[in-house]
Amino acid sequence: MFRLINKSINNNNSNNIIKLNKNNIINRFCSTTTTTSINKDNVYDLIIIGGGLVGSSMACAIGNNKSTKHLKVALIESSKIQSVEETISNPIPDIRTISFNNQTIQLFKSIDVWDTIKSTKRINPFNQVRVWDTSGFEGIHFQDKDIDNNNNNNNNNTTMGYIIENNIVTSSILAKVKEFDNIELFQQLSVKCLNDYDQETIKSTSILPSVTLSNDQQLHGKLIIGADGGNSILKKQLQVPSMGRVYNQKAVVCTLKLGEQQQPNNTLFQRFLPTGPIALLPLANGYANIIWSTNLIHAQYLLELDDESFLEQVKDSFLKSPSTSNSSFFDIASNLLNLNPKGLSGNEIYMPPIESLVSKRASFPLRIDHTFNYTLPRVCFIGDASHLVHPMAGQGVNLGMADVKALSEIIQQSVQSGYDIGDPMMLKRFEEIRKPENLKMLLSIDTLFNLFTNNSILVTGIRNFGMSLLNNISPLKTLIIGVSKGEPILKFK
């Protein structure tokens, strides 16, 4: 489960412990600024730090709304920005792909970027998810039966979601950002520091917080939004405490070319191995992405293998199973309750043929993290800057996009009601809306991780008994499909 993660500015994961500084006021500042030294050209309504998927979507949500399109926005992105044409010039998909649920697709439509994303012909809908593990049972098959495979799946209401490359979506959104007159995009610039931020001073005076960029330019904002990821410099400087843990795992990712298939490429496959889950995500044009979460030693081993040996490891991880003894708790319960009437071992699950490895392999460390405070006076955190999850459920970005939707609506209400967009009461409403939803997902995924990485005989038997039981309860499966599509199930008032 969670344990308190103590964050300092210099994070060292070697001991899996990060030190907590209880003072929420920055001790490391740039030079002091006063209201008399502010250049009005450098004053913005919103300063968004991070121009990735979440930050750029936040900017578009403000620019594309008639109530907020007058607000002056600064969007700061440290990386080089590619055009959509540059992004799709390479026919081989990027190794970083994301599963977008239907609620996120609706957001893309509302900010008028979905048509651009579709025009790349690099989107792939999925309507089935197959989940099983190495213990030798048939697993769970989730299927949205309303999908029309001959309809090219343009109606996202008939899909569980879409698998799309991260850079395709990001470049499409940033192309839209450039169309708005009220948004100024600061490219290849990072935030050096937040200047002299003091909570009580910000709350009790008209002094606006400001940031200094890597080119020493200072920007002042009524609201500063941290959308700069799990290693948010804004959160580090504010020393905002969080809770979570390091998983001592890495995700190894790569892109594969699939062979000719007997079935449509619309199924997401995930198998739980003793070392962690491996997933195959279907991509457009006969490609697929692998996300293999495993322990640190095994991850390094996978990265060092030659391509042919690595492909063999991937195939074996999906298709090979140890034989069962027919005397485990699961086998006895399954026979008594007839939960696996076909006597399937798990090997019978259809897997698309893998033709070749077409990308380099990369890896990234895995952890779970939840920020105590999403908001401070005139500061707000969204996306990975406030919550990180294990990628096994593919919900990290979708949670961030739900943050965007909620915060943009709060800002719209503030403008319409005559409130300051940095008003603490309005920002607190955002936190009250999003924190319970994010916590539900984080706790659910962390519980699943603990359940599937515990290889004791008892836990394995109970786990497989429960999964087989779930596979035969249609209403519960329908609820889970709804969650994966982004539909709210349990609501907090």
TrEMBL record:
Enumerate the UniProt keywords alphabetically.
FAD, Flavoprotein, Membrane, Mitochondrion, Mitochondrion inner membrane, Monooxygenase, Oxidoreductase, Ubiquinone biosynthesis
FAD-binding domain ranges (all copies): 45-245, 363-415
GO MF annotations, alphabetized: 2-methoxy-6-polyprenolphenol 4-hydroxylase activity; 4-hydroxy-3-all-trans-polyprenylbenzoate oxygenase activity; FAD binding; oxidoreductase activity, acting on paired donors, with incorporation or reduction of molecular oxygen, reduced flavin or flavoprotein as one donor, and incorporation of one atom of oxygen
Q: Which reaction does it catalyse?
A: a 4-hydroxy-3-(all-trans-polyprenyl)benzoate + 2 reduced [2Fe-2S]-[ferredoxin] + O2 + 2 H(+) = a 3,4-dihydroxy-5-(all-trans-polyprenyl)benzoate + 2 oxidized [2Fe-2S]-[ferredoxin] + H2O; a 2-methoxy-6-(all-trans-polyprenyl)phenol + 2 reduced [2Fe-2S]-[ferredoxin] + O2 + 2 H(+) = a 2-methoxy-6-(all-trans-polyprenyl)benzene-1,4-diol + 2 oxidized [2Fe-2S]-[ferredoxin] + H2O
- Root EC class: oxidoreductase
EC number in record? 1.14.15.45, 1.14.15.46
Stored Pfam families: FAD_binding_3
Per its database record, what is this protein's job? FAD-dependent monooxygenase required for two non-consecutive steps during ubiquinone biosynthesis. Required for the C5-ring hydroxylation during ubiquinone biosynthesis by catalyzing the hydroxylation of 4-hydroxy-3-(all-trans-polyprenyl)benzoic acid to 3,4-dihydroxy-5-(all-trans-polyprenyl)benzoic acid. Also acts downstream of coq4, for the C1-hydroxylation during ubiquinone biosynthesis by catalyzing the hydroxylation of 2-methoxy-6-(all-trans-polyprenyl)phenol to 2-methoxy-6-(all-trans-polyprenyl)benzene-1,4-diol.
Q: How does it assemble?
A: Component of a multi-subunit COQ enzyme complex.
What family does this chain come from, according to its entry? Belongs to the UbiH/COQ6 family.
Record's protein name: Ubiquinone biosynthesis monooxygenase COQ6, mitochondrial
